[in-house]
Amino acid sequence: MVYNLDQPSNQPGLMSNSCKHAIFNKALAGLRRINLDGLRWRVFDAKGQILGRLASQIATVVQGKDKPTYTPYREDGDMCIVINAKDVCFTGRKLTDKFYRWHTGYVGHLKERSLKDQLEKDPTEVIRKAVLRMLPRNKLRDDRDRKLRIFAGSEHPFGDRPVEPYQMPPRSVREMRPRARRALIRAQKKSEQTVASEAARKKNKDKAETAE
């Protein structure tokens, strides 16, 4: 969807034109320093996605690792647009147990903020931090950061671009460890033996009753 900056937003719940202009300008900031020739515009829908799995896919695309022409020292990644950042999901108790910490430089000024508070304050920074911490820390990191555009809602100002929805790969089940596999096989055999013994006991009981 594209922001309609000319239409007045008098309805309740809608952003004002000044807010839309600010988001539009922030989204377009830094694009002049990127060579957009030949790049694809990939759209990631974060709604219902696990943060780690989503960030790993974004980091792969923004580095260009999904292309056969990938080279570590070249910047061939595509533009990544992330929508619905406020609806991203987390596993475990990360909302209350995960903290972002930083220091102001003054003595005793170690600041921290929980994931829940950061999600309420700015959900786009949650995904941005997760993706940036998966990228190698070299000279290409800033250029890859400029190719990442994250929005809290479902609207973005790049509707005039040839955007392509990104399909998340199916979640693969982790292969069971040998010890756990052997334990599962033993449990299955034990249950089968129990069922067989119960059937044999019932059969013998029926024969005894018939003989009487």
Automatic annotation (TrEMBL):
Pfam family, any one: Ribosomal_L13
CDD domains reported in the protein's UniProt record: Ribosomal_L13
Chain residue ranges for the region called Disordered: 160-212
Feature: compositional bias, Basic residues: 179-188
Record flagged with keyword Ribonucleoprotein: yes
One cellular-component annotation, GO: mitochondrial large ribosomal subunit
Transmembrane segments: none
UniProt keyword list: Ribonucleoprotein, Ribosomal protein
GO MF annotations in UniProt: mRNA binding; structural constituent of ribosome
InterPro entries: Ribosomal_uL13 (IPR005822), Ribosomal_uL13_bac-type (IPR005823), Ribosomal_uL13_sf (IPR036899)
GO biological process: negative regulation of translation; translation
HAMAP family referenced in this protein's UniProt entry, alphabetically: Ribosomal_uL13
PANTHER family xrefs: LARGE RIBOSOMAL SUBUNIT PROTEIN UL13M (PTHR11545:SF2), RIBOSOMAL PROTEIN L13 (PTHR11545)
Family per similarity comment: Belongs to the universal ribosomal protein uL13 family.
Name of the featured protein: Uncharacterized protein
Lineage: Eukaryota, Viridiplantae, Streptophyta, Embryophyta, Tracheophyta
